[in-house]
Predict the 3D structure of the following.
Amino acid sequence: MDIRTRHRPLNILFAFDGSQHSKAAIELLGSLSLSDDSNVIAIGVLIPRESSNHALMENALEQAGNLLREKGINNKTEIVLGNPAEKIIEYANDLHPDLIVAGAKGLRHTLGILLGGVVQQIVEYATQPVLVVRAPYHGLKRILIVTDGSKSGHAALEYFAGAAPSESGLVFERFPLPPGIAVRVMNVLPPLPSTDLLARTWPVGPDMLPPIPQDRQAETDWLKEEENRGHAIVDDAISYLQKNANIIATPALVRGDAATEIIEFAKENEIDMIVAGSRGFSEMRSWLLGSVSRKLVHYAGCSVLIVKSTRLNE
């Protein structure tokens, strides 16, 4: 059965603040294969003490709207007063957009809306997928999808590539990629166990550390088992992408601290966007690796798309 892909209309909430990262977001949105009936709502939030900047924001939003229209994107703009993160999440809860877009860092002066912590709050508390765009924007050519085989990891795959094909063979690809994208799929194996690592991270104290196998063969077998599991996770994800969206991806398997390895890989391979679930890794591994998505948003040198597992059944 031939699989035909088509982009369904997307409603996008764009948290705009006039920064270089917001302007990069406009360029990114313009490069996507958005359908003609997709729509962008660009919202500017002024904190009450900065209400005197209303005219500046109005002018900046008007320019943003014009740029989006020049790129063939339907849009409307709005200015509101209040706490930026609260207002954006409020709007998201009311409008139920398919995607929230925000710049990685905002302006501290002049318009002064999205400061660094606001973006983190949006990622943390919004239930919709959040695309955090980082300037400068050079196009979407290379994308890295991070998966760990969990429900959250699969949510990112579903959002990115669409659900299973229908009997007609028609697939609605949820994220409207521009043509010619190179996709990598990565799984990060846990760090090699050591007494020092466990002593620093074990939640019940060093006196109750689990035993670390000293048998060389047992350690080799354990490492091989971990690698096989990682390869299986990546292979399943690649198969899903190809089956549901005709996306041909290549694998990547690394070992170490998840956020560090992902960020380094993205830098070395000139990745333009990282795609990840919001609650990666099992509960037992989470205390070792921390909040990976939070670190990616804060430290990655490229744009990051975070998908929440709560979207799976919507």
Remarks:
- Residues 4-133 form a domain with the Rossmann fold fold (CATH 3.40.50.620).
